[in-house]
Design a protein that fits this description.
Shape: globular
Strand order of the largest sheet: 3-2-1-4-5-6-7
Bound molecules: NADP nicotinamide-adenine-dinucleotide phosphate
Order of helices and strands: EHEHEHEHEHHEHHHE
Strand content: 15-25%
Distance between the termini: 36 Å
CATH topology: Rossmann fold
Number of helices: 9
Number of strands: 7
CATH architecture: 3-Layer(aba) Sandwich
CATH superfamily: NAD(P)-binding Rossmann-like Domain
Radius of gyration: 17 Å
Largest sheet: 7 strands, parallel
Length: 239
């Protein structure tokens, strides 16, 4: 028996590769879903049969409030929104870091804090899951713009977890995916960027969207007793 039917779960930035796979899995369990997207309305529309769709840029305070208003009885929040913040030359780093801060840290973290405050005010337990990356838990040259902000997100999530522990029972955890064949990594995989990890026997295969979906589901389980943790789902790549 699923424990999720009729629980309202917000998937912020959830119309992308990992988000849409998770949306389908949670919908199959009967969860009530609110999915937000920023600009790709056509891609989000594919989820219209299983979720309420909200356009929201998480870097904007009004948009974050509007998204949470669409889920007054929120139980779960999963924040998929992110940007790989790729930098082609050193002189792009300044601007890339600023943009990365908004998309990969500020927006997700403030949304999580605002959702947690609403859960606490409502007196209901909740589960919040944020998305970092393997690049935030290990060192990959060239990843400064992306990894620094995703690492800051982890620290912010752990602080929030500590603030929300205890009777409020609002748990906050982070998933750090490795190279996953969905969403933003697909093009890099196709271009051979990570092929050496297979050739050298570092990983047995690339991650699949369902590897991530299972991790999200684990943290969303209402009786889960884990908070303030980072779960790296990378097949051992960063060991
Ligand atoms: N795929 C991987 O291998 C991998 C590995 C490590 C970490 N991750 C992390 O996993 C999460 C999901 O990634 P994905 O692979 O599913 O990527 P994706 O398909 O590119 O999805 C990213 C989503 O973020 C949304 N978004 C971007 N900026 C936003 C903003 N300011 N406000 C609201 N939404 C925003 C995008 O919406 P629009 O398209 O509508 O703008 C898109 O739906 C990301 O946080 C990513 O960093 C992924």
């Amino acid at each position: 028996m699923s424990t999720l039917p009729n629980r309202t779960i917000v998937l912020a930035g959830g119309a992308g590769g990992l988000g849409s796979a998770t949306a389908r899995a949670l919908a199959a369990e009967g969860a009530r879903l609110v999915v937000s997207y920023r600009q790709n309305a056509a891609r989000a529309e594919a989820l219209s049969g299983i979720a309420t769709l909200v356009q929201a840029d998480l870097a904007r305070k009004d948009d974050r409030a509007r998204l949470l208003d669409a889920a007054p009885d929120i139980y779960g929040l999963v924040v998929f929104a992110g940007n790989p913040s790729r930098v082609a030359s050193p002189d792009q780093l300044d601007e890339a870091l600023r943009l990365s801060h908004e998309v990969n840290c500020l927006g997700p973290l403030l949304l999580a804090r605002e959702a947690a405050a609403r859960m606490k005010d409502a007196g209901t337990p909740g589960a919040i899951v944020l998305f970092s990356t393997m690049q935030a838990v290990a060192l990959f040259p060239g990843s400064t713009a992306y990894a620094v902000e995703k690492a800051a997100l982890i620290q912010g999530a752990r602080i929030l977890a500590k603030e929300m522990r205890g009777p409020a029972n609002i748990r906050v955890n982070v998933i750090a995916p490795g190279v996953t064949q969905a969403g933003m990594a697909e093009a890099s995989i196709a271009a051979g960027k990570y092929q050496r990890y297979l050739d050298d026997g570092v990983i047995a295969r690339y991650g699949r969207a369902e590897d991530i979906t299972r991790a999200v589901r684990f943290f969303l389980e209402p009786d889960n007793f884990i908070t303030g943790q980072v779960l790296t789902v990378d097949g051992g790549l960063t060991l």
